[in-house]
Structure formats: C-alpha cells, structure tokens
Amino acid sequence: MAGGRSPGPAAPGADVPVHISLRTTDVDEAREFCRSLYYGPLRIEPVGDPGRFRFQADVVVLGPITLGEVGYGTDIRVSIAALETAYHVLVPLTGMLRSRHRGAVVLADPTRAVVFRPTGDIEVDWPASCRLISVKVERAALEREVDAALDQRVISPLPLGATFDLVDGPGRTWAAMVRLLLTELREPDALASRPRMAARWRDMVVSGLALTVEHPYGEEPAGLQGPHRPRTVKRALDAMHAEPWRAYTIHDLAALAGVGVRVLQESFRQHVGMPPLTYLRRLRLDAVHAELCRSDPGQVSVSEVAYRYGFTHLGRFAGAYRTRFGETPSQTLRDRR
C-alpha cells in the first residue's frame, strides 16, 4: 500500500504540482483520502462485495485544479452535499456510472463525461468495472475564465450542461489533454512538472473546459448576457485576478489600465457595479474563503491565509469576511467543506 497526505496550501501563484497516491483495502482510509483532496462531507459506501474493495488513486494537485485516476474494485455509492467551491467532471476510462444531480440522471461512460455544478446534492452509483479520471476545478478559476474569454459578466454558479461528448469535438481533445497531463505529472522529471510548463497546462485545462462544456454565454440567453466591458476595465480586472494579494492602489490600477483615476472609477461603476478597490477586496475575501474551505485546520491558520492575500489588519478583515459570508473565518476553517 502506498499512501500520501493532502499537501499544505501553496503560496499564491505557485505552480508546483503535488502528486499523492493511495492503494488500500480500508474503506475508512480511502474515504479520508478523498475528503482531504476533494470535499469534506463525502460519503463512500460499498454496495458490492466489501471483500473486493481495492481503492486505487493517483492524484495531482496543480493550483486550482485537482486531477486523479480513481477506481474502487467493487460497486460503491458516493454521496456528497453541494460542492459549493468547485465544478467537477468525471471522465470514465472503463465501465459506466450513474449519477443524479439537480434532478438530472446522467449515464457516463468512455463516450460521455458527467459535469457537476457547485449547487445541489450529488449521488453516484459507481460499479467495480468503472475506472475514471476525476477533475476538480475551483469555482472562481472556471468562472473567471468564462468571464475573460467572452468579455461579459456571468452569473455564478455557471449554468453548465450536465454532460458532454468524449468521442468527437472539443470534449475528445480536452479529455485527451487531461489524461496526458495526469500521466506526465506522475513522473517527477517530466517537462510538464516544471512550474512554467505546469502553469500553461493548468490554464489549458481550465480554458479548455470553459470551451468544451455547454453554457448559454455567447448564445444571447435572455437575462444572462452582460454588458461589454471596455479594454481599460478588463486590464485592471486581469491584473487583480492575476495577483490579488498585491497592495494595489487606485493609482496603480489606473496606470495599468492606461487611464486616469476618475475614468477608471466611472468605468468600474458602469461595467462592474462597484469601485475598483471594493472589487479587489471582494476578490481577496473570496480567495481566502475558498482556501479556508479546502484547508486542514491543523495545518493552517486564519491569519496566515489572510496575510497571504493582502489583509494586514485582521480586525477589519474579520468584519468584512463575516459581512460577506455570514460566518467568521474560524468557523469556515473549522467546518470546511
């Protein structure tokens, strides 16, 4: 049996892939492994012969994406509450599984993937014959990519389709890219494991998924299409999303956008709905919340994460956090999902 533990949180912008694997016949050990790398309130129950339980997982964490090849050796049922902080795709390599999510029943096999949105309980009937690649993409990363690619506001969570084709079209290419990346990142000396290359692969996985899975943007959906954002606003947004922890001033952002402070503030009021620094604070709060949701309270502290994202006054940070999320940062960390 080979095992590993969930990596501690990396520094923002770090693109060093972390490979964790586990081979076990212990259901509790497999359950804890999946909870630590994916979602806390996750239930795994064998419904086939428990004596044939053979959990095998090779998982790579790379910034906002988590890729893993997983199999159980016996029939199981996986149940989980709303994902909240991520979108998730299952790509079967062998066999067929049945999932129920948001009123939709999807049969996934090597010809068709299943997609889960952040909201709604999930139940998956996973037979012994099914081995698959599991792809978790942080919610903010995918939504930011769709927003940037289409240059329009998007609602959250994205109204994604529940499935996509793996045989033809972009789904085939995306799945092949994910399989290749996972294979490469298992090897410590692979070119893809170098930070600069890993960052490019990471971006291709996220942007490729945004272009593969069905969503209404670009199809003129009623009530969803947002106003076109001018290039000056997009430059400031791109800078903030790339390095939210930086101590930007309004003058810094105006210089990056190539306009004066008053022009930038008015543009943000019209096209974003809030001033630039208010948007930056919200972006930082969302980043802290996402990290606290996935962190182990025994390995990280609230103050450590807050400082990492540019909050130097913990009292004001705690007040702003509670206003936005309805709970304290410590509660989020303790009750992480």
TrEMBL record:
It comes from the Bacteria. SMART domains: HTH_ARAC. Keywords: DNA-binding, Transcription, Transcription regulation. Signal peptide: none annotated. SUPFAM superfamilies: Homeodomain-like. Residues 234-335 form the HTH araC/xylS-type domain. One of its GO terms (molecular function) is DNA-binding transcription factor activity. Coiled coil: none annotated. Pfam families: AraC_binding_2, HTH_18. This is AraC-like DNA-binding protein. It comes from Actinoplanes campanulatus.
